[in-house]
Every structure is written in structure tokens, then in C-alpha cells.
Amino acid sequence: MPKRKDNALLVQELRALRGRLIDADIQRITHDREESARLTAQSRYQAIVENQAELICGYDPLGILTYVNPAFCRYHGREARGLLGTPFPAFASEQDLLDVRRAVSDLGPDRGMTALVHRVILPDGGVRWQEWAHRAVMDASGAVVEYQAVGRDVTDIREAMEAHRRAEEKYRAIFENAPLGIFRTTAAGRFEELNQVMAAMLGFQSPEEAASVVMDIGREFYDDPARRLELLAALEKASGNITFETVFRRRDGGRFTGRLHVSAVRDETGRVVSLIGLMDDITERMRMEEELRRSERTARTLLNSTLELAFLVDVDGTILAVNDIGAKRLGGSPGEVVGRNFWEYMPWETFERSIDRAWEAFCERRPVRFEDERTGFIHDVLISPVFNDAGGVDKVAVFAQDITERRRLERLREDVERITRHDMKTPLIGIVGFAQLLLKSANLTDKQREYLAYIQNSGRQMMDYIKKSLDYFRMEQRSYVLRPQPVDMARVFRRIHEDLRPLAVNKSVLVAFVMDGEEISLARPIFFRGEEDHLENLFANLIKNAVEAAPEDSVVTVSIFSGKDAHRVDIHNPGVIPEAARARFFERYNTAGKEGGTGLGVYVARLIAEVHGGAIDYRTDPGEGTCLRVTLPTNPPGE
What we know:
Layout: H1 2-50, E1 55-59, E2 65-68, H2 70-76, H3 80-83, H4 94-104, E3 113-121, E4 127-138, E5 144-153, H5 155-177, E6 181-186, E7 191-194, H6 196-201, H7 207-213, H8 217-221, H9 226-237, E8 242-249, E9 255-266, E10 272-281, H10 283-305, E11 309-314, E12 319-322, H11 324-329, H12 334-337, H13 348-364, E13 368-374, E14 377-387, E15 393-402, H14 404-439, H15 446-476, E16 485-488, H16 489-507, E17 510-515, E18 518-519, E19 527-530, H17 532-549, E20 555-562, E21 566-573, H18 579-582, H19 601-611, E22 615-621, E23 625-633
Parallel strand pairs: 17-20
Antiparallel strand pairs: 1-2, 1-5, 3-4, 4-5, 6-7, 6-10, 8-9, 9-10, 11-12, 11-15, 13-14, 14-15, 16-19, 17-18, 20-21, 21-23, 22-23
Helix pairs in contact: 14-15, 16-17, 17-19
């Protein structure tokens, strides 16, 4: 009995074991099927993820990357193994990392996703912007076990948006700050938009006021309302913008001339529905243009009343303006000559020489004067630079005076003077020689001897004058040969001082000599090199002129400076050179009305200075007087 009972229990346990094994097999098979389905789905999901162009990644709650798709790797220029285990966002700054962590830390059961934009600095140094959507993956208890993120590069979008923002700001800045009126109106005559300048031009306090008040622009603000209809008609025919000028009325009734630059906005049928454009108040400009036209007429009248040829020329020789006599000399009228180039009127070689002179005025920014002799005419030419508002020179004024007849008369006078000098020399030799022979006679009275001596000295002085005039003539012809010798200028200045004493005493003028800043008595030698007679004549002329020009009870100062390479003598007097004499100060026969003057003194002084390799210059001012500066080299030509 007990044995049967044990067998029954054993069978019962075996059946229970078999049931459990069957359940276990069923669970295993079910699990395997589920796992297989999960792996299949995961494989499919991973294939989809890894083929996406978007950047896809996963990271743990500590922000460490656990998965990156190939697009993520390509974008960041790293393989997956170089990215996994690193912080997300990859290559972000500390601040951007903190911002992302702070944002995703709020994700949970109540908020499963968030979107962020942040910067990254790629390995090549490029700065890019990324936009990410973050999703929290939670377990059954609601705890975050993983974050998944999908991102894209939005750098181009941000740059486009930034460019659009800057363009909008620039447009708004131009619209609000432009010196011109800017507007947009309907074809019917209502303002859709206008800036402050446009509103103020029409007499309103603000654009908003103008937009709300104005109902019909043509009727309310055009002095002639029909002119707006003409504007609309012109826009209907035009393919682009047009310029339109008319008279407008302000809100207070005042009138002004406005220049419109207008474009039409059309609907799909091509009909004009609105106008956009700019308006400028040109009332003052028109007044100034009229004044300019009057000034031009006045200037042309003045230019045409002179006997000089006058041209305005640009840098390449193109004629920009010309007076009537200048155009006539070129064989045409001003209208025919303006716009043409000088090379069309002369041989190329002559043009090149002339343009070189013009370039001197352009480059050295000073007037250039010369004589032009060709085709039977001689012209005294003055080329003066014309300065623009920036201080540069972009054109020159050319004035040419026909001096052909004057030069003919001067040459005739020179020929007469040369003949006269030659014809006078022979009888003077006889006068001096016979006077010298008569003085050797023993039967002469004292009075007779005195008269003969006077005749002899006068003849010698006349012979000396003829010799010097021949020298000056050779100096003019650049054929004079200088024979420099040491010259004691202290002795020369003493003689000049003594000769001028009567003139100086008569005017109560003191002549003072200064050497290197200290007054001197001319007792010690001062050596220059040159020809003594000519140097004495040079300084005698200049000092005499200074004494004559000085006011009474004043001082004429002769300051001497000796340098290594040059000597300098400044002759100062308190007087002022007359305006009429300044332009031709160093020319022959320039007396400026001085009674008894020949106009040769300064001219001869300049010849002598130049033949010694030196120069003379002057400055004159009502407050400072006049100073003539003579500069002579220590080693003059001919050494």
C-alpha cells in the first residue's frame, strides 16, 4: 500500500515537471521570437538612422556620447571610436556645454523633448552653428536612462538670417537718415510709407501725421495737379525709373521745386498700383546753378574782352574752355574747339614740349611761364594750376599773349643800341686820346688842364658804360664768360655807402651793415669770388633802390651771411613794392611809376647774379617791409 502511494506521487511530480519544461520551452521560444523581432527591428532602425543626412547621436545622463551615426562622424571629421566616450555637444565650448546640460536636465515625464541652437568649433578651426532636438528615454519608473538627439547644421540659415537682419537695419537706417525724401504711395495718391525728411519737406511733424492726413497728393501738394497725372502717364510708358521735376506746395502754402526719381510697382496685369522713389528739394541748387550760369557769362565776357588767348586744359591736353580770341587763333569757334586736344592743332614735337611745361604746373603746383615761338608768332605763355576742393591739381589755366610785335621792337632797339654803342666807341677813343695828348702840353693854364681832365674822365666813364652795356648784352645772350677773382666786399660796400650818403642823408635814412647777426663797420675784409665791377653794380642798384623806397627816418639793413657753399646778402627796407610792379619785378623797364627811373636796375642785378651762378628773390609785406635776397655761390662758374 505504501509502495503504490509512492508511485502515484512520483507520476504526479513527473507530470508537473513535464508541464514546467513545456512552459519553459514555450517561454524560451516566445523570448527567442521576440528577441529576433527586436533585433530585426533594431537592425532596420539602425540602418535607417545610419543612412540619414541628419546628425544623430545618443548620450547618457552624464552627457557622454554612446552612439553616433556616420553623418555625425563625417560632419565632425572623426571616426566613431574617436567620438564615443566624449562629451556632447562635440567640440562645443564650456559655456555651450553648460547651456545644453542645463536645458536637457529639465527633460522628464512631463517634458520629453527640447530644441537648442549652439556653436561648435570644428577641428579645422571653422565655427559652425547646429540646431538639435533632444529626447529623453526613460525607464518604467520615469528615470532618464539615455538621451537621443537629432541635429543639423544651420550655419547658412543663420548667416542668411543675419544678412537679412543687417540688410533690414541698413535699409531702415538709410530710410530714416537719408538726406532725401523717400516715399511709397498708391497710384490714387495716398502715402503708404514715407521718411521724416519727406514729411518735413511737405510741412508735417512726422511721417505718421502725413500718412494719416494726406488723401490726394496731386491735389494737395502739386502746385499744378495735372503734373501728377503727367507723372503717372510717363510711368505707364516707362520700363524703369524716371526723373521728374515740378513745383510743390508745402502744407503752409510755401513753394519749392522738387526732383523725383520714381519707379512704378505693377500688378500681374502690368497696371501701375503704387509708386516708390526719392525726392530732393532742388530750389537752392537751381538758384545756385542760375548764379553759376551768370558767373560763367560774366567770366566769358571778361575773358573775351582781353587780348590774351585763354584756355582751360586738363591733364592730357584736352581743351575744357576757351575764349573767343583763343578759339580764333586755333581756327574755330569756342564750340568747335572745346573737347578737342591741343595735339590736333600743332606738330607732335611741339605738343610734347608744351605738355611738358603743363606737367611742371601740375606736378610742382606752381605757375610756369615761358615764351613760345613758332609759325611766325611769339607768345608769352603763363600756365597756372587750378586747385580742386581737395587741394589737388586736375587742370591748368593757360594764358598766352601775342608779343610778336613787342619782341620785334625790342630786337630793333637792341640792334640800334648795339650799333650806337659801336658807333660811339670810336669817337670816344679819339676824345679821350686827344684829351690825354693835350694834357702833356706845357703851355696850358690850370683852368685848361682842369677842363681837359674833366673831358678825359667823362670820356672814360662813357667808355666804361659802353663796356658794361656790352657785358649786359652778352649776359642776356648767355654768351658772357665770367672771370672770377677774390673780391673784398667790405671795400665794395664802403664805396657804395659813400656814393649813397647824399641820398640817404637827404631822406634821413640810415644804412646799416650786419654780418652774421652783428652790426659791422666794414673795416675787416669780406671775401667773395666774382668780378668786382659787376658785383659792385649789382649791390649798388639794389641798395640804392632800397634807400629810395624806404620811408623817411627809417633804416635800410644789409645783412651778410657767409656759408660753406654760398654767400647770402639780404637787403631790407620798411617800404612795400607796389602791386603793379610785383608780377614783372625782375623784367626790363619795370619802373612802377618811379619818377626818373629807367627800370633797368633790378633787371641788371638779376643778370649779374645769374652769370655768377646765383639768384635774387624777394618778399614784400605791409607789416614786414621788403627784403631782397641775393644768393651767390662761393665757387662761381668759370672757376
